[in-house]
Structures are given as structure tokens and as C-alpha cells.
Amino acid sequence: MLQMGTTMIRTTREITLHFEATHAMPLLPQWHHEHNIHGHQYELGFEFSGPAAATAGAHEPSLQEWIDDQLRGQHLNEILGERPTAEHFAMRAHAQWVEQLPGLSAVRVSALLTTLVIKTPRPQRARSTGVRAGGRGRP
Q: Which residues contact 42 (CB under 8 A, 6 or more apart)?
């Protein structure tokens, strides 16, 4: 960080990557739209601070490979369990990469676009019993 008068200047660089995946939030009430399986387009940002910001781009290929191999098109509940929230995902990604990426200062996860899959039960057809009102059978 640099200090210029009373202004603090911090140098950062963010690598931003995108992928699509599904998840469900089974701990939410059944009526909640996030309860059922649905998909998002995710934006995953890795922020580097200080001197490491200058060389952060060198980490982009390994991060992209991780996303392509482990996350793209996956059902995140299988990776993150019952709480596949953006917050939980960001904490897990940070814990996984902080030791391997010098200067990693933050991980940001945003769900940009939601695609809902809503399954509605088919209405049951009333079956004819062959008995009309009044107790008589069919003519």
C-alpha cells in the first residue's frame, strides 16, 4: 500500500472467470424457488493484492483448468453439500487456493443468471366410476 497524503492506494488485480452449474437449496422451504434444482451462470473472481498483483495473470490457466475440470456443468450440491451458497462456495475456493496462490486476498462468487427448473405435478383426471349421480349406472 502507498500513502499519498491522507489517501491510501492499494494495488490489486482480479482474475474473473465464468462457468455454469446447477444446485438446489434443500434446507429452504419447499415453496422457495431456490429449493428445487436450478442453474446459474457464475462469475468467480480471484483478487490479488500488493506486489503479487503484477504477476497474477500467470495463475489464470490453472484457475481456468480447475473450473473446467471440477465445476463447469456440475451439480454443486455434490461438491459443497447441502449449503451450496455463494458465500460457502467463496470460502471453500479461498481455502483451496490461498496456499497455492501468493498474494490471493479475496475470492468473489456471483450468481449472474438463474435458470429455474420448476416441476409441476400433472393434474389427475377424474375417473368415471360408471355410476351417475342418483346411484344409477350408465344406460
A: 18, 19, 20, 21, 71, 109, 110, 111, 112
